[in-house]
Amino acid sequence: MLLALILSTMAMVAIVALRYLAISGAFAALTTRVRPGHHAGLGAQIRREIGWSLVSAAIYGIPAGVVAWGWDSLGWTRIYADWNAYPLWYLPLSVFLYLFAHDTWFYWTHRWMHEPRVFRVAHAVHHASRPPTAWAAMSFHPIEALTGAVVIPLLVFLVPIHIAMLGVVLTVMTVMGVTNHMGWEMFPRWLVRSPVGGWIITASHHQLHHERYQCNYGLYFRFWDRLCKTDRGLSKSFQP
Ligand SMILES: [Zn+2]
Ligand SMILES: [Zn+2]
Known about the structure:
Layout: H1 2-34, H2 43-74, E1 79-80, H3 90-113, H4 116-127, H5 142-149, H6 151-158, E2 161-162, H7 163-179, H8 189-192, H9 203-212, H10 223-227
The structure holds zinc ion (2 copies).
One zinc ion is lined by residues 126, 132, 181, 206, 210.
């Protein structure tokens, strides 16, 4: 039993690390094609981004591995595998609930980490990337990584979700984490500038957080930023 727990956590750490390397690597390669020179002179920064991200991968992987083990061997969590366990309309709703809950947690912990004393300890690492690159997706101080690592492992105990929809949530989390930092907008202008785009966060929005610090704190949605009047719109440095 203990061996299975150790193997599960080791496997999850490896999965999170490899997923990071694969997706950040893919978008970093795409960046050198779309924005030649974007990475020029950032070699030392990128090495730091990868180093912090791999430490974060361990911090994210351990609770995920414990929960995966508990799901498999003890029936923990409200993750389900039977497509008929809940109505079909619940599938997209569950994805939205997870993203919204994660976004809410992120917005408020992120604002807290911009308190000057907390910032210096826990969040300066993430903002040391100037400008951030696709490798900065998980470039967090361990304290910040810990605040992010507990969200999904806690949610799976509270909100039912199909295992495939959990896969969708994790994919959105990883892809948006990478692309929001890569230094250019991959979504078309008609979407980013549309009424729907006014509620979702893409690179144009998060870039401005890295330029100005005291605004645009959200993760997936602009709901909290707009409600709390911390939304300053999109970065002017790269217009989609
Ligand atoms: Zn960021
Ligand atoms: Zn920040």
